[in-house]
Write a structure and sequence with these properties.
Layout lengths: L16 H17 L18 E6 L5 H12 L3 E6 L11 H9 L4 E5 L3 H10 L4 E3 L7 H15 L6 E5 L4 H13 L2 E5 L8 H9 L3 E5 L2 H5 L4 E4 L10 H8 L6 H4 L7 E4 L11 H4 L6 H19 L4
Parallel strand pairs: 1-2, 1-3, 3-4, 5-6, 5-8, 6-7, 8-9
Helix pairs in contact: 1-5, 1-6, 1-12, 2-12, 3-4, 5-12, 6-7
Bound molecules: phosphoric acid mono(formamide)ester and norvaline.
């Protein structure tokens, strides 16, 4: 990597496990250091003082939008938020030009894009760090918040077993990317028709990752320390009825949770569709960590931003 190449945060499989570990530990320390503080008070070290983050959304968002905004405020920086449709991007201005223009105006850009290649093109032309705030191929910020949440409650993820049940989607992809980097085992259960990306699986094997796939949710969950699912119909998916039908046997209910380790936890990136991918009893039950998980989006992203700015 050229020394002047910005520190992009786009695909976990491209990053060093040691950097991911630094980000996770910084996030935990920052969270602990500000316990009890009002949410708008900046951290003492202000690692983003005088920095501005631009956010571009091609798709809807609640958590990513609010958590990055709150994160920048807590880091002592500023944000500019736009929906892509309101920008010239929405009228066909090339993404390459947008990347070069924004690079002259802000210190980093977070983009939530329909098509992953657009995030990569943006980063190629940007001269400031670019963060993937979700694409069709990954959701790396979410996975750092999820792993942070697991570790807060159950200790290091290294050597532990996480089970993904449902659609082999973008969030699943980032778990596959993270598994070899942070040394956890990932068991994935999906219907054959909605299997995870084969390139991701092949790369995980190349990187000595322990990632298994099956069509049987019970097999994936058996003895797992953590059970994770996500919506069956992601933003941009058009085959709603086909998905609901194929994924119905993959609902995470109390019986399926009963196959996991006794102290297993449940994660879901949200938004959830209770009664589809997960029952009320599980998502609102004692094993569910979803509210900590949502809060941790702020803490994990503060450390992702600090890393992008070279402050950690
Ligand atoms: N989990 C997540 O990224 O949520 P939003 O779509 O609300 O940002
Ligand atoms: N897989 C979901 C995640 C939403 C945060 C989607 O892409 O819509």
């Amino acid at each position: 990597m050229k020394s002047d190449t910005p520190r992009h945060f786009i695909d976990l499989w491209r990053l060093d496990g040691s950097d991911l570990r630094v980000i996770l530990e910084d996030a935990k320390a920052r969270k602990a250091a500000r316990r009890g503080w009002p949410k708008g008070r900046p951290d003492e070290d202000h690692p983003a003082r005088d920095r501005t983050l631009a956010m571009i959304f091609e798709k809807n968002s609640t958590r990513t939008r609010y958590s990055f905004d709150a994160a920048m405020r807590q880091l002592g920086g500023h944000v500019i938020i736009s929906n892509a449709v309101d920008m010239q991007l929405g009228r066909g201005e090339p993404i390459e030009d947008t990347a070069r223009v924004l690079s002259r105006m802000v210190d980093a850009v977070m983009i939530r894009a329909n098509v992953h290649e657009d995030v990569e093109r943006f980063a190629h032309w940007a001269t400031v760090p670019v963060i993937n705030g979700l694409s069709d191929k990954g959701h790396p910020c979410q996975i750092l918040a999820d792993l942070m949440t697991f570790e807060e409650h159950r200790g290091s993820v290294r050597g532990r077993t996480l089970a993904w049940v449902g659609d082999g989607n973008n969030v699943c992809a980032s778990f596959i990317h993270a598994a070899p980097k942070l040394g956890f085992k990932l068991n994935i259960a999906t219907p054959a028709v909605f299997h995870p990306d084969l390139m991701d699986l092949a790369r995980a094997v190349e990187q000595q990752g322990q990632v298994t796939t099956t069509e049987d949710p019970r097999e994936a969950v058996r003895g797992a320390d953590c059970v994770i699912t996500d919506t069956w119909v992601s933003m941009g998916d058009t085959d709603h009825d086909e998905r609901i039908e194929a994924l119905e046997p993959y609902q995470v209910d109390e019986r399926l949770m009963g196959e996991a380790a006794k102290d297993a936890v449940f994660l879901h990136c949200l938004p959830a569709h209770r009664g589809e991918e997960v029952t009320d009893a599980v998502i609102d039950g004692p094993q569910s960590l979803i509210w900590d998980e949502a809060e941790n989006r702020i803490h994990a992203q503060k450390s992702i931003l600090a890393w992008c700015f070279g402050a950690i």
